[in-house]
Amino acid sequence: MKAPFNFQCSVDEDRPGNASGGCSEGGPTKSSRYITALYYTCSSLTSIGFGNVSANTDHEKIFSICIMLIGALMHAAVFGNVTALIQKMYARRAAYTAKTQELKDFTRTHHIPKHLKRRMQEFFQAMWSINRGINPN
């Protein structure tokens, strides 16, 4: 009667169970287990997860890990640039508000007449809209 599996004893340090000189029934190598663990970690951290289709061989897992890392870097770059644009937009608005407040404080401190105060505010608003807050000098 033949055994249903091939059981061999060999000295292979890369196989599990052989560190103490024991026998191994086969199974994945240590490097394959590390690749699988890295694949699982990357797919979990990048929110891709395990779907209907997943990598089976070590080469597929390595390729998937590389693509996931590239995708994560691109994702970070896009969100970083969008955040920088929003920050610049709010910085200009904050500068406009600060300059407007400085103009109001100036007119109040120096007791500028209302008609001149209104003209100064209109001039400031017109120049700000033309130059978008950038000093042309």
TrEMBL record:
Q: Does the keyword Transmembrane helix apply?
A: yes
Query: Residues in domain Potassium channel?
Result: 31-87
* Pfam families in UniProt: Ion_trans_2
Query: What InterPro entries does its record include?
Result: K_chnl_dom, K_chnl_volt-dep_EAG/ELK/ERG, KCNH_animal-type
What's in the keyword line of the UniProt record?
Answer: Membrane, Transmembrane, Transmembrane helix
GO BP annotations of the record are: regulation of membrane potential
Which portions of this protein are annotated as coiled-coil regions? none
Entry's Gene Ontology molecular function annotations: voltage-gated potassium channel activity
Q: What domain of life does the UniProt record list for this protein's source?
A: Eukaryota
SUPFAM superfamilies from the xrefs?
Voltage-gated potassium channels (SSF81324)
Note whether Transmembrane occurs among the keywords: yes
Give the region (Disordered) as residue ranges: 1-28
TM ranges: 62-86
Return the GO cellular component terms, semicolon-separated.
plasma membrane
Do you know which PANTHER family this protein is assigned to? EAG-LIKE K[+] CHANNEL, ISOFORM A (PTHR10217:SF637), VOLTAGE AND LIGAND GATED POTASSIUM CHANNEL (PTHR10217)
* Name used for this protein in its record: Ion_trans_2 domain-containing protein
| Organism field | Macrostomum lignano
Q: What is the lineage of its organism?
A: Eukaryota, Metazoa, Spiralia, Lophotrochozoa, Platyhelminthes
